[in-house]
Design goal:
Elements lengths: L1 H33 L4 H8 L3 E6 L5 E19 L5 E6 L6 E2 L4 E5 L2 H31 L7 H14 L2 H16 L2 E3 L4 E4 L9 E2 L6 E16 H4 L7 E5 L5 E9 L9 E9 L10 E11 L3 E4 L4 E2 L5 E7 L4 E6 L4 E2 L3 E4 L9 E5 L11 E4 L4
Parallel strand pairs: 1-21
Antiparallel strand pairs: 1-20, 2-9, 2-13, 3-5, 3-8, 4-7, 5-6, 7-9, 9-12, 10-11, 10-13, 11-12, 14-19, 15-16, 16-17, 18-19
Helix pairs in contact: 3-4, 3-5
Length: 375
């Protein structure tokens, strides 16, 4: 009896176990029916990388040459008196604007005026002697006829022997020295000096007392690679950017025909208006010259162009209806640092093109698109 009870319990246990296995299998089958996607499809659905896109357009692109240049004044001169003397008045002060012909420095003129008067007296005395000598020669030669050439030679000799020729030169030199006692501005500009000349200061001839700079118009020298030099011509517009990001415009005035053999660069000269005094001599300025304009069917950001094995280039175009990307093999017709020109039947203005986070994409991949923020 006891053995029979054990058999009954054993059979009941196995029956319950089989029922549990059957129910578990049915449950798994129901779950599989609810999720019919394959493992690859499930994996693809879960991985949707965020990709940055931009809208293609039909605008042209431009080729530019960029370089740094140094500002030079259009005119500048060191102020150096030609004579020595004592300062009577000085108008040379830092930053003062002057007009052409304005008086800058005046020396004590008394000695110079006396020298002119003395030279004038000597000249008049020599002139008197010359006239007497010429009258005597004229009276003595009335009976004969001489050629004009001999008369001119005789006059010149008399000018020398009577001291008239020397007196004339000394008078002219004295007047010139008197004019040197006043230093005037040779052109309109701004004064620069690091010294103050008080009245009575003795200044030697040739001593620098200041500098006059005309920076209303400035010149800039830019070094350009020899490979780019032939693209630049006189008259081209140059966009200038100062140290403080100030924006100005200049014009190419000349292209130096000589190339530096060490640096392999040539020099171009640019002229720019500087009425507001934004640029000062010695400043470093950024210059940008547009040398070429190129047009095509489509313009896309250069970052859209990717290179695959074998050197082939492609881009990814978005299908907005299902967020799927398609690769399109393209050959850019023109490139600059920011843009590329594309002529391809599968790419048109208005298409959405991947420009960032797209390096690892594959053909027909589903992505999470985000439009690039305009700059």
């Amino acid at each position: 009896m006891h053995s029979t009870s054990k058999n009954i319990y054993r059979n009941l246990f196995f029956s319950i176990l089989c029922i549990g296995i059957i129910l578990s299998g049915c449950k798994n089958g129901e779950e599989e029916d609810k999720n019919p996607l394959s493992e690859e499809e499930q994996e693809s659905a879960e991985v949707r990388p965020e990709v940055i896109f931009a809208i293609a357009d039909s605008k042209p692109i431009y080729q530019h040459i960029e370089s740094q240049g140094v500002v030079e004044a259009n005119q500048s001169v060191e102020l150096k008196p030609k004579i020595s003397g004592y300062v009577e008045r000085s108008y040379i002060t830092e930053g003062r604007s002057v007009q052409k012909g304005d008086t800058l420095l005046v020396f004590d003129r008394r000695e110079a005026k006396m020298a002119v008067q003395q030279a004038q007296n000597t000249y008049e005395e020599a002139l008197h002697k010359y006239r007497i000598e010429m009258n005597m020669r004229t009276n003595g030669n009335n009976s004969g006829t001489n050629g004009d050439h001999k008369k001119d030679a005789g006059k010149q000799m008399v000018r020398i022997t009577t001291g008239l020729a020397k007196a004339e030169l000394e008078l002219e030199q004295a007047k010139l020295d008197l004019s040197y006692t006043v230093l005037k501005a040779p052109f309109t500009g701004t004064l620069s000096t690091d010294r103050r000349l008080a009245n009575g200061t003795y200044v030697n001839a040739g001593t620098k007392v200041g500098e006059l700079v005309d920076d209303r118009t400035v010149r800039l020298r830019f070094d350009v690679l020899e490979s780019e030099l032939s693209k630049i011509e006189s008259g081209m517009e140059v966009k200038l950017s100062g140290p403080g990001a100030e924006q100005l415009k200049g014009t190419v005035m000349a292209v130096d025909p000589v190339v530096d053999t060490k640096t392999k660069t040539g020099t171009i000269i640019v002229e720019a208006e500087n009425r507001d005094g934004i640029l000062s001599p010695g400043m470093t300025v950024e210059g940008r010259i547009q040398v070429l304009k190129q047009e095509g069917k489509v313009r896309v950001p250069r970052s859209a162009i990717l290179s695959r094995d074998g050197g082939r280039t492609l881009l990814f175009k978005l299908k907005p209806e299902n967020d799927e990307v398609h690769w399109v093999y393209v050959e850019p017709e023109a490139l600059n640092s920011q843009w590329a020109i594309i002529n391809h039947e599968q790419v048109a203005p208005g298409d959405t093109i991947a420009v960032d986070r797209h390096f690892a994409l594959s053909h027909l991949q589903i992505v999470k698109p985000r439009l690039q923020t305009p700059e």
